[in-house]
Amino acid sequence: MVKAVFQIEVETVGDLITLDGMEGKLQRMVGCVGLRALSVKQVDSDQAESVQARLIDWIGQQGGSASVSDIQRAFGFDTTDDVVRVLQALVDGGCGSWVNLTMIKPGQSIRAFELAACFDQVEQ
C-alpha cells in the first residue's frame, strides 16, 4: 500500500554532481532514511516546471505575497476555489501561510498568500 506520493524537482548546484543516474541516486537517498521508493520516473522538462514552482517564483516577484484574485488573473485559473486548492497545498507543505490584507474601507479584507521567510524574494 502506498503511504505517500511526492514530486521532487532537482537541478545541479555545481559541476561535481551531475543528473546522470539520478534515479539510482534518489533511490539510495530515500533508502538512507529508512524508506523504499516504489517508483522513480523522470518527467519531460515541460512537465517538470510545476504550477506550484511557478507560483512561488511569481509570488516572490510580487514582493512575497499576492491575493487569491491576483493569482487567478495571472495564472488563468477558472475559479478562486481552484487557486485556494493549489495555495492550500503550498501552505500544507510549509511554503507559506494565509494572510488577510486590510483594505482602505474598515472591515474589508482580502485573502492572500504570503511566502514563508525561507524563500528568497526576488529583488526588484
List keywords for this structure.
124 residues, alpha+beta, three-stranded antiparallel beta sheet, 3 strands
Structure description:
The structure is a single chain. With 124 residues, the chain is of the alpha+beta class. The chain has 2 domains: 1-44, no CATH class; 50-115, Arc Repressor Mutant, subunit A. 38% of the residues lie in helices and 14% in strands. The protein has 5 helices and 3 strands, in the order αααβααββ. A 3-stranded antiparallel β-sheet has the order 1-3-2. α4 packs across α5 (80-92). The chain is elongated, with a radius of gyration of 18 Å. It starts with 21 loop residues before the first helix and ends in a 9-residue tail after the last strand.
Gap between N and C termini:
47 Å
DSSP strand content: 5-15%
| CATH architecture annotation name of the largest domain | Orthogonal Bundle
Biggest β-sheet: strands ordered side by side in the sheet: 1-3-2
Q: Tell me, what's the shape?
A: elongated
Order of helices and strands: HHHEHHEE
Uncertain runs are: none
Domain count, please report it: 2
The major pleated sheet works out as: 3 strands, antiparallel
> How many strand elements?
3
Name the helicity range.
25-40%
Name the CATH class of the largest domain. Answer: Mainly Alpha
Rg on CA atoms, Å: 18 Å
Instruction: Give the overall pLDDT as a whole number.
Output: 79
CATH superfamily of the largest domain: Winged helix-like DNA-binding domain superfamily/Winged helix DNA-binding domain
